[in-house]
Amino acid sequence: MAQEQNNNNPNEQAIAELILAIRSKDLAKILSAYRQQNETGRAAQLKFCFETGESQVSSYANYQNIAAQCIAAHGLPTGIIAGLNNSDRINFFMPALQASDAFTHTNHQGNTFLHALFANEEQSPPPFNFIRSLLLFERNESLAKALRIRNQHGLTPLECYFIYNLEDHKLPEHELTALFALIEAEQTDNFVPQNANLSHVKASLVKRNIALSQDSQVLLIIASYYQIDVSTLYHLH
């Protein structure tokens, strides 16, 4: 009966085939088990690798490497992108993102993993310092490009942070410094923010009852991003 249920669930079947391939310790078989799946099956296999690696510390590097090899060879399924929204998942999949140059890949909503990471209210504040450190490596220059990608609502990852995740308590100094560094990295190569989004950002802060005063860190951050005076932003309706 268990086998019958497994065959009736494509995701469970995909995972079972990957497990068999992993047990063979044959990379070609592992890559084949991944390649033959559709996007949903591949996403299930990658989720299995992450969850197994997290639960079996001694096998973490092995499963991390398997995920990286599979993604580098046959691509990152778009269904995974929205799930790359916290530090644990980013750490696990970072070698895969680097190997496949997938920082700028988007899902059906036009979101990169940075949109998902910065908008996740359960990861507050986002790991700005970690992302900034990645920008210091030449091989991660595409991260700066990912910062400039607008989703289907015309929002950059940092604008998603402002709208969904920015709180009125002060950021730790190292994270604030890193955030300003990311703003600077985004706004190079003649990339400028769309001030049309500014009213949307402020309206979202008001809706979430974020305390706004002319000396608040929140307004300082947003004014810096949109390159306007804090007083102008404060009086914006």
What does this structure look like?
The chain has 2 domains: 1-75; 78-237, Serine Threonine Protein Phosphatase 5, Tetratricopeptide repeat. Helix 3 crosses helix 5 and helix 8 packs across helix 11. The model is unreliable at 1-6 (pLDDT under 50). It has 237 residues and is mainly α. The chain contains 14 helices and no strands. The longest helix is centred in the N-terminal third of the chain and has 17 residues, at 39-55.
Into which percentage range does the β-strand content fall? under 5%
Estimate nothing, just give the exact number of structural domains: 2
Mean pLDDT: 91
CATH topology of the largest domain: Serine Threonine Protein Phosphatase 5, Tetratricopeptide repeat
| Number of DSSP-assigned strands | 0
Number of helices: 14
Uncertain segments are 1-6
Q: Major β-sheet, in short?
A: none
Give helix % range. 55-70%
Global geometry:
elongated
CATH first level of the largest domain: which class?
Answer: Mainly Alpha
What is the architecture of the largest domain at the second tier of CATH?
Alpha Horseshoe
Query: What's the N-to-C terminus distance?
Result: 62 Å
> In oligomeric terms, what are we looking at?
single chain
Radius of gyration: 20 Å
Quick rundown:
This protein has 237 residues and is mostly helical. It has helices at residues 2-8, 10-24, 27-35, 39-55, 60-74, 87-99, 113-119, 128-135, 142-147, 157-164, 173-186, 198-207, 217-226, 230-234. It is built from 14 helices and no strands.
